Amino acid sequence: MRKIFLVFSLLSTLAILGLSIFSKQILWGFLLTGPLILLGTYDMIQRRHSIARNFPVFGRLRFFMEDLRPKIYQYFVESDTSGTPFNRLSRSVIYQRAKNVDDSVPFGTQLDVYQSGYEWLNHSISAYSPHEINHNPRVMVGGLDCSQPYSASIYNISAMSFGSLSENAILALNGGAKIGNFAHNTGEGGLSDYHLQPGGDLIWQIGTGYFSCRNKDGSFNEQAFGERARLPQVKMIEIKMSQGAKPGHGGILPARKVSEEIARIRLVEKGHDVISPPTHSAFSNPLEMVTFIKTLRELSGGKPVGFKLCIGNKCEFIAICKAMKFTGIYADFITVDGGEGGTGAAPQEFSNAVGMPLRDALAFVHDILTGFDLRRHIRVIASGKIITGFDMIKCFALGADMCNAARGMMFALGCIQALECNKNTCPTGIATQDPSLIAGLDVTDKKVRVYNFHKSTVNSAVHLIAAAGLKHPGEIHRALIYRRTGPNQIQTYAETYPPVQSGSLTKRPYPPQYENEMNISSEDTFRPQYEKIMDLASVDNV
Description:
By secondary structure, the protein is an alpha/beta fold. Helix content is 41%, strand content 12%.
């Protein structure tokens, strides 16, 4: 589009010159084309709006249409409490936070408080002033075997790979993390130069493709991992078991996005589709998995190592916990990704109908770790459409220590949900490898917006914590969050998700809600052992 505008400017200039020579009506030429040329030139040199930089003059039509958007439509979209958090918080509010603009709203509550699904936090009469509590709460990640624990922010950038995202997007995200002293997850696409350049803290994600630490056959390369894992910017290592947007399905990077640079970073071949396997080749059962965790911790020099998964078969997670309990090898953290998590490209059925939603998964993981008496050793990170401070509070109530966000951070970069992520034509220069589009995303401006969004969202959570009469996210519990389940029915999270007692899964009888999964799970396999139920049934009959 920049090229089109330059051609238009050149032709307009020639037309003006022609008019001046043959008809001496140069003024009319300037009146017709001059303002457009000036506006387009300004659009190309300004840094605040990626759309206008990439699409001079024409890009402004989007801003014009947004201003004309019917307010009633905006109200109903934002009032739909049954949908996703993006329906409850418009993009404009996220943009305001990213731009460090007041995001308060006029005219009171804009949600239907009597609609099923409405949630709220119980406040305290003896609330704290926000100035009385820490505005930058931190969580220490690192268990008994970790020699380099990491003090993490309660809100960090979730996994997004270079290749899926552009170099400027990665630079801006990590630059914002550097300014705000929070962490940036690399995604499974490998450890790129753009992750390292700004100097922000990194969580290096190791997926099934082992990008940046693989052999030619796709297997794990210990030497390549060790060299990169010891870099000072790398603070934690995350093994990706599955992701919420497409659990049980490998990641896909289309060939048109696999440039020579991406091939070098990922250690793959240029110009070919890069498809991650659905499962890991470095281990095949829970015991081997926890041994792999120990190996990565040693190779990284004692840094925190954990894993990320979307909960599917409950017995599989229980099997991992049994393996940790059996070997004494614990993950330092577990990232719980809800089935509502996002991605640049995934089969529709996987996005809509596979994987446990975050709220249910988070409560389950926390309770199972508590039941095995492992919770005190392991931090829990929540991931999946966590946009607002209240979203964070709900996750803390269900057992999370920290939260990750991808969509909110992308909106802070300027994402407009053009839904072109999988086509390499993202108009904002975020989810593309097209140099002409990437140039529209100004790193200097956008990294500050990422920082602003993080700061404002954490600040919102801190204010809510203070309103509840608490001083730290770790003090929030399930009884503080209420949810309307019907016209005249209300439940607390504690009623919806009854907690289990610490150590209750280490001896019989097991809590009734987990008895079946406990009986069919084993530390030496991920597969459910249904024959064990048959054996137990036959013994009972005797």
